[in-house]
Amino acid sequence: LDTARQELKEFIPHVENLSDGSIRKMVGRDLARFKEFKKQGVAVKFGRFTQKENNQIRKNVEEFLSISGIDSAEKLLFTSRYPEDKETINRLKAEHEFCAKISEGIPRPWRLIYYRARKMFDPNNYKGRYSKEEKEQLKKYQAMHGNDWKKISELMSRSNLSVAMKFSEIKSPVNYGPWTKEEIQKLKHAVKEVIRKKLEMKDGSSPSSLEQPDRDLWVDREKLYQQLPWTEIETKVGSRYWRQCKQKWNSILVKKMSKGQQLHRWSKSLQNKITLIKRLYEMKVEDANEVNWEELSDAVGDVPTAYLQVQFYKLKVSFVPFWQKKTFPEIINFLFQYKLPELEEKL
């Protein structure tokens, strides 16, 4: 495992954060591909998939269907929906090396390619608007099964995300205007409640521990935005979608963190900028729209995505001359070549 991690580190900078199981899978599915791409001078990519990559995935899936004789992409990528054919499909996938075929020509980790393919070929993702009958059905199923969206999605032939978001939309009246002071207070209170609950359950902390101003603030700050139960927070706020709650909460954090010393130590702020520039450079994306800010947030480890976007904007506006006339790769290359050494020296 140590050798594998060391080999993968050249291609996956955040490899030390991956589990042993993930490392084993990447050795089998990715390492040889990555080495071959390196010989060709092609860097491993992260971030959003380009149109060219989407077309390559379609081509790979269609070719595999032709080779294997499986009659639909849904059967290939959502085998569990066809229990009577499951054994045969899995045998054909193994026999014709499904893992290798679906990732052919795409310099990304296999897992990301597979998830992208599932999203592209899931017929339940593209069923249009919900009818009145479907909305009533959704309410009934949610009353019966709670928030078991996987179960409900099977009953309604819609994707998990689709039914969860639609229920969020129809269960209560939603305000689309500016946030009121009362709503912001409800949001803050709701977040505080769920974080308190998480601390008590996971860390064995007492309820009063959150009131201690200097208690392990670094860990507490991470818990301010990582893996919060937004549907629960939405319910507590009562007048906003979970996505509105998440966006508003992140904007509140950005304002707080942007004040510098108050919540963000100077040295850590420098380290975040260094990591941000390095990871953007490693992604090798051609356009800003391809950047996966969620992934960058995981790499930095203690800031929300909105904060990173603000930091990147400040870096390019403050330090890249004529940045408006430069392409995205030119901006990143400039920051990497000229600003990064200066930040590392300061740190």
Automatic annotation (TrEMBL):
Q: Which GO terms describe its biological process?
A: termination of RNA polymerase I transcription
GO CC, one annotated term: nucleolus
**Tell me, what is one Gene Ontology molecular-function annotation carried by this entry?**
chromatin binding
Highest taxon in the source lineage: Eukaryota
Q: Which residues form a coiled coil?
A: none
| Myb-like domain mapped to chain residues | 122-170, 171-253
Which InterPro entries does the UniProt entry name for this protein?
Homeodomain-like_sf (IPR009057), SANT/Myb (IPR001005), TTF1-like (IPR053078)
Q: Which Pfam families match?
A: Myb_DNA-bind_6 (PF13921)
Q: What is this protein called?
A: TTF1 factor
Record the organism. Answer: Piprites chloris
Coding gene? Ttf1
